[in-house]
Amino acid sequence: MILDRILEHKKAELRHKQSRGYLADLKSVIRDMASPLGFAVTLDATRTAQSPALIAEVKKASPSLGLLRPEFADKFDYLGIARTYHEHGASALSVLTDKEFFQGDLTYLAEIKKAVPMPALDKEFMVGDIQFYEARAHGADAVLLIVAALEKRQLIDFHALATELKMDVLFETHHERELDTVLEWIPTARMIGINNRDLKTFSTDLGVTFRLAKRIPSDKIIVSESGIHKREDVVQLLEAGVHAMLVGESLIKAQSIEKQIETLRGTAV
Question: How far apart are CA 242 and CA 60, in angstroms?
Answer without folding.
Answer: 26
